[in-house]
Amino acid sequence: MDVLAAGQNLPGFGDQPIWLTALKVLGVFVYLVLMTLFTIVFERKVVGRMQNRIGPNRVGPWGVLQSLADGMKLAFKEEIIPVLADKPVYYIAPIVSAVPAFLAFSVIPFGPEVSIFGHHTALQLTDLPVGVLVVFACSSLGVYGIVLSGWASGSTYPLLGGLRSAAQMISYEVGMGLSMVAVFLFSDTMSTSGIVAKQNHLWNVIPLIVSFAIYAVSVVGETNRAPFDLPEAESELVGGFHTEYSSFKFAMFFLAEYINMVTVSALATTLFLGGWRAPVPLSLWHGANAGWWPILWFTAKVIAILFVFVWLRGTLPRLRYDQFMAFGWKALIPINLVWILAVTAIHVLRDRGWPAWQATLVPLAIVLFVIVIPAVMVWDGASARRAADLEDDEDDHARYEPTFPTPPMDLVVPTPPRSLATAGVRRRPAEIEGDDTDV
Question: N or C: which end of the chain has fewer CB within 10 A?
Fold first, then answer.
């Protein structure tokens, strides 16, 4: 209760007029829509450059309005609804996917306090003592829209895509959630504005590089992006969970995917990259972290993370589904749990007055010698056993090869005379009677 009571007094929230809250809501909505339009063109341009192509260059200057034209086209296309679709669920599934994507941005801080028409308020829609968990909950709700869309389409391939996406999101949400625990321990708060305030002198990406790496991998799987886009595998499932959707409903799934990319990029910026604070060269300027300038630094960090999404899509091939799930459950989650134990030990030792270098080296040394080295030895032993089993299987296969005579692989079968006669080819009498040399 004390934590909740303290959270109600977060500065800049709870006492602002309704019109200012409505203006912030409109600003967040416009920001997300513009970032979505930008990301679509940005992705096509970057991938085109990677593949030595031009990319979109017809609509608008340098093709920058191509995503707007695609959105207008989707809105006015004819809508086709499957006969076997469950109509109410079929209609509501795109909404369930798109709405949580917008809600998750409500606790993301864009900048410090500014003056808007004479009112001092923070560049953030709202904040809570558990603000990060709000983003986590909203991202978890998006899977319902995907599962419902696959089930309500009345088709096999969308159903398989929905089930894949559910299993994928559950496994990688565990890794993503555990990667945030170290940030909570390091910052002593779960408020997004409080986490940014704690990174005044040192960004969390430096001491929590392991958490940042695990978060980066988990959000790629969470957003169904390549090389983890298995729910939408064209070679296996045609188009995935939204195969039977068209027109504006398909556009809502498309919008939700790109807004989720922007949201997880903004959350990574908030948790690990200092939030809206300027990077080191620019932070030397006294006014870099004041006024409206922090929105520019925040957007630049988000675009840099979006570039990594695009880079992965343009370079890495798609994984096999069993490899992907095994990586999430057998690699990311155990590493995350060990890392959380190490961070907790460092945190406790610092609170008890240990020097910083001792409190850091002792838990890491224990983890290295007690967990990491034995785990590597066990992994090497398992790999050696698998290689030995493979050699045994090959020996058994060679031992039990068939001993009965088999025809040679280069045997040439002569054409029957009747087929030659049908084709209008006459043969010599020796050929009809049979000539060993011909055979």
Answer: N
- Give the whole-angstrom CA distance, residue 73 versus residue 52: 27
Q: Read off the amino acid at residue 109.
A: P
Distance CA 28, CA 36 (A): 12
Kindly provide the residue ranges of all beta strands, DSSP E only, lying in 79-191, ordered along the sequence: 111-116, 119-123
Helix 209-222 to helix 333-351 angle, to the nearest 10 degrees?
150
Tell me how far apart the alpha carbons of residues 216 and 93 are, in angstroms, rounded to a whole number: 27
Helical packing angle, 66-76 and 18-50, nearest 10°: 110
Inform me whether the pLDDT recorded for 5 exceeds 60: no
pTM of the model: 0.80
Confidence class for position 38, pLDDT limits 50, 70, 90: very high
pLDDT digits (tens, 9 = 90+) for 112-140: 888 888 888 888 988 888 889 888 888 88
Grade residue 11 by pLDDT with cuts at 50, 70 and 90: low
| Residues contacting residue 333 through CB under 8 Å, at least 6 positions apart | 174, 175, 178
Burial of 115 (0-12, 13-18, 19+ CB in 10 A): exposed
Q: How far is 64 from 243, CA to CA, in rounded Å? A: 28
Residue ranges covered by each domain of the chain: 13-277+289-319
The residue among 2 and 397 whose pLDDT is bigger is: 397
| pLDDT value at residue 7 | 42
Report, in this order, helix, strand and coil percent for the chain, each rounded to 5.
70, 5, 30
Does residue 313 sit in helix, strand or coil? Answer: helix
CA distances from 272 to 7, 148, 324, 331 (A): 22, 33, 25, 22
Q: How many Cβ atoms are within 10 Å of 307's Cβ, its own excluded?
A: 15
Asked if omega into 227 is within 30° of 0 (cis), the reply is yes
What are the counts of helices (DSSP H) followed by strands (DSSP E) for the chain? 18, 2
Measure the CA dihedral 163/169/170/176, to 10°.
170
Q: What is the pLDDT of residue 246?
A: 85
Given a cut of 70, whether residue 234 has pLDDT beyond it is: no
200 φψ region: left (φ > 0), alpha (ψ -120 to 50), beta (else): alpha
